[in-house]
Amino acid sequence: MALIPPGEEPICFIHCDMSKDMVQDVIFLFRKFRQKFQRLEDIASVIRKTFDFKYGPLWTALIGLHFTAHVTYEPGHYVQFYAGQLGFVLYRSHNSLFRVKLYEAEASYLFRSYKKKKRRKVIGGKLQKRKKPKKKKPKKKKPTKE
């Protein structure tokens, strides 16, 4: 019995509510990155980021062995299939104005504030603010008596 190389397994669709162009993109990207990456989370991450860039934000990609999913999605933006034993789900969550605004305008701000919070210390169960280093005042020269 010959082994099928990764990325060349036959695709078995479980549910597809997506345009043909999007489905072709998903299959192409899945096969391409299945051969390139060993870690499943890398495959899902790259496909999600590609769809975010090409078709707008709010995409979610799930990948794993022997699983199923039941999610709420935007109509016309869901696909679920198996390639061998590997299951894959890609969907776009509902387009709420708040989430799109947050994604586009405030993502960099949140990332910066997260990095700041990460550096704070927790003492006695309370989050301590970072102390700013005190500026040293230059020493005044004492006049010499002659």
TrEMBL record:
Region of interest called Disordered, as start-end residue ranges on this chain: 118-146
Stretches of the chain forming a coiled coil according to its record: none
Keywords assigned by UniProt, alphabetized: Cytoplasm, Cytoskeleton, Dynein, Microtubule, Motor protein, mRNA transport, Nucleus, Protein transport, Transport
GO BP terms: microtubule-based process; mRNA transport; protein transport
Subcellular location(s) per record: Cytoplasm, Cytoskeleton; Nucleus
Recorded superkingdom: Eukaryota
This protein's GO CC annotations: cytoplasmic dynein complex; microtubule; nucleus
InterPro entries the UniProt entry points to: DLC_sf (IPR037177), Dynein_light_chain_typ-1/2 (IPR001372)
KW Ribosomal protein (keyword) present: no
Keyword Ribonucleoprotein: no
Molecular function per GO: dynein intermediate chain binding
SMART domains: Dynein_light (SM01375)
Family assignment from sequence similarity: Belongs to the dynein light chain family.
Protein name: Dynein light chain
Species the sequence originates in: Cacopsylla melanoneura
Lineage, uppermost ranks: Eukaryota, Metazoa, Ecdysozoa, Arthropoda, Hexapoda
